[in-house]
Design a protein that fits this description.
The chain is of the alpha+beta class. It is about 50% helix and about 20% strand. The model has no long low-confidence stretch (mean pLDDT about 95).
Length: about 150
């Protein structure tokens, strides 16, 4: 996965290429949702152990032309070239659903936990910067958490 800063730089390049080609570029943000099992796993250190596996899954579940990044400890982003808003929503939801079917270890005396995501998706609008679209997607994911 790209780091936050590398992702931002790459996203700017992708946005420039999308403008030159007249193709859409969408951005998805997946934020680990605050469900009861996840809150417990976070408080007891199990979520920290699961995050590398989750990140690896995010990176493997995108197309070759897509870019995945970890923006924060529990926040992942996707850059989806040549992808309109509806297709980007479907891709982000598909990735979240696959990860949501995975059970993560919560210790010997507790059932495994699953991760759900708050998802935000934005397509870069004409005249908009890629970073602004990323901020819109992140804001949408955060709104779903409230």
């Amino acid at each position: 996965l790209f780091t936050r800063d590398l992702f931002a730089a790459h996203l700017s390049r992708l946005a420039g290429a999308a403008r030159e080609r007249g193709r859409p570029l969408s951005i998805g943000v997946l934020r680990v949702a605050d469900k009861a099992d996840v809150v417990w796993a976070r408080q007891n250190g199990w979520l920290d152990r699961a995050i590398p596996q989750i990140g690896s899954m995010v990176g493997r579940l995108v197309r070759v032309e897509d870019t995945a990044a970890r923006l924060a400890p529990e926040v992942f982003a996707l850059a989806l070239p040549a992808t309109n808003l509806a297709a980007a929503k479907a891709a982000a939801e598909r990735i979240a659903a696959v990860i949501g079917c995975t059970a993560f270890d919560a210790g010997e005396d507790r059932s495994p936990f699953v991760c759900e995501f708050d998802i935000g998706v934005a397509q870069i609008e004409p005249g908009e910067t890629a970073i602004h679209a990323l901020e819109r997607a992140a804001s949408l994911a955060l709104q779903k958490a409230i």
